[in-house]
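Lab notebook, bench 4. The sequencing result for the construct came back, and we need a structural model before the next group meeting so we can plan mutations. Quick request posted to the team channel:

Model the 3D structure of this chain.
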Amino acid sequence: MTELVKRGHSVQTVQTEGTSLYSYFFYTACQIPFQLPKDVDIYHAITPMEGMWLPKNKSIVTFHDLIQMLSPEKLGSGMGYSKWKSFVGMRYNKFVINQSKRCKRVTAVSQETKDNLVKHLHVPEEKTTVITSGIRPDLKPLRRRDGTKKIGYLGQLDKRKRIDLLIDAFKKSKLESELIIGGKGFDEFSLKEQAKGDNRIKFVGMVRDSDLVEFYNSLDVFVFPTAAEGYGLPIIEAMACRRPVIVLQDAEIPWDVKKRCVIVDDLIILLGNQKYLEGRCTYNDYKGNYEWAKDHSWSKSVDKYLELYEEVLDSH
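Done. Here's the predicted structure in token form:
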């Protein structure tokens, strides 16, 4: 949105201030059609949950993943712990997805997501375009300010991210380090309860965009124990700061992203020895990962989106 406005385009947004699962359901099911502006040239839903109500002949919808459909057992956000919420959510999600895929054009944030759209939702391949998201241009490596060893995580605090595995492994280790956990989410209380008794573990809450550079550069290692991602932007952000990134072998992450990480089977084994941890991360290709991460430019992404907008407008 910032990039579009910078180029002179007028952007109107529709969004909700609610944070609960119920408020989001009410927003997508009832509020959106009454909030949609009428005097616009094109509509762009940044997830399929918002794409259901858009005029299909002049709209684009972006899919980040199909986790709710293909891996429902990995869901978080308050759905993964309740059978009835999962049951209702799955069916609502399937309905919304099948409505949203009718938009004039569909974009996917990775080739894997596009392949899943074609295979499982039967979206025509020629209708779907891969456009990766960008990262903040100010992300860059900085010199560490102190000598304290720090391991970090940033993202939602919910079931799918598997922060509990990281906390468990860190508590069992004897590392002379700190574990810094950034983010908010449904599992925040239970994770803090799990971490009790270990003063090395720090929860820093929501990290503002303007503080991302300082956050990533305060770490020696970034650990992202997620079970599944459509892409995994925190991985890219950490690499833009030349930080080694650790993920788990069984994580469903696009291979072009995952192959650049330190891939491990067991966090307990990895964190059990400081020298072993540092040795594994030494092999991370800092230069190659940095250059690849910095190529994730919102300017390039918006160039591709504008081409799609023009195609939709011309056809309309």
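The chain has 14 helices and ten strands.
Will bring this to the meeting.
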